Amino acid sequence: MSRPIRVGITHGDYNGIGYEIIVKALGDERITELCTPVIFGSKALMTQARTQFAPEEFRFTPITSAAAATDGHINLVDITDEDPELQPGIPTPESGKAAVVALDAAIQALQEGHIDVLVTAPICKENAYNDETFPYPGHTEYLEAVSGDEAKALMILFSDKMRVALLSTHLPVAEVAGAVTQERVIDTVMRLNDTLRRDFAIDGPRIAVLALNPHAGDGGLLGHEEQDIITPAIEECRRNGVLVFGPKAADGFFGSGLWRNFDAIIAMYHDQGLIPLKMVAGSEGVNFTAGLPFIRTSPDHGTAFDIAWKGKADETSMRQAIYQALDLFRNRAIFARASRSPLRRHYTEKGADKTVDLTKDTED
């Protein structure tokens, strides 16, 4: 690119820890050498957060739109009509609405090419949810809906040590078994394989699929999903050239350290995959929404209302979300260039001093 990558950052629910982790993550003046941050939030709240949490030399530049962002500066697009009423630790209708307004403004900036990647601070799902304005259980589902018919989001949480994709995301446990279908397992494996190659630059990735039931069903004694659904789906993916293995009983898979042999893991439901991921990743976990036409990452934690605006929040996950968004963006761009004009396939006949191009039709 002829300019630094522009990272759009939404403020999330402002009564949570969003502003604190944003200011702390951007507090190192070297950040503007790596990218151009464009925050979508409140000038008044950003000023207050700078006073409370940032080093003395921290500065940001208010702008009217993302199109006016200046490289070498931390930019802020003020999405509020008036100064918000801050109520630390208390989700309010106003803070929920402001979270959605910031997200919509960032999506518009992405679509218009004024920012290149999106990093979202945590929202309170219950607070943001509204049947008319935000009828979605979280960022992942909303971003898929606004990205067009071809977008199909895949939730991946990862660190340098482990990558976990979820077959089902924000779904009640009582509904998980019904969501495990052969079609869905195949689709998740194939899309994960694609994003590992495209976004993580892994050639020939090895994927492990977890079982749904204890002991992988114990041959049908503890459930038939492994025999009837998951195993046939894995075999179909293997026939399509994917290096996929399983179903693996989750307790032994993680407890024995077998997970270290794989580039990524597919968990059947939220807590099955994210508990071990968060134990391994610690404060460095990142949430990545694969399958969208743009890169979106976020910290792997929530709004933490209990410590909001108290100076206790750890910004590590937010900083990693920014860094990883840059890496994912570059990987995807490199993959796109490499795939745009692939070399033509050739076959050399034995005993013949010629090369036949198999991409062309030939006739005797």
- Number of DSSP-assigned strands: 14
Per the principal axes of the C-alpha atoms, what is the gross shape?
Answer: globular
- What ranges have pLDDT less than 50 throughout 5 or more consecutive residues? 352-364
Mean pLDDT figure:
91
Helix content: 25-40%
Q: Short summary of the structure?
A:
By secondary structure, the chain is an alpha/beta fold.
Could you characterize what this model shows?
This protein has 364 residues and is α/β, with parallel strands linked by helices. It folds into two domains: 1-151 and 292-357, Isopropylmalate Dehydrogenase, CATH 3.40.718; 154-290, Isopropylmalate Dehydrogenase. The chain is built from twelve helices and 14 strands. The strands form two sheets. The chain has a twelve-stranded mixed sheet with strand order 3-4-2-1-5-12-11-6-7-10-8-9, sandwiched between helices. The protein has a two-stranded antiparallel sheet with strand order 13-14. Strand 13 and strand 14 form a beta hairpin. The model is unreliable at 352-364 (pLDDT under 50).
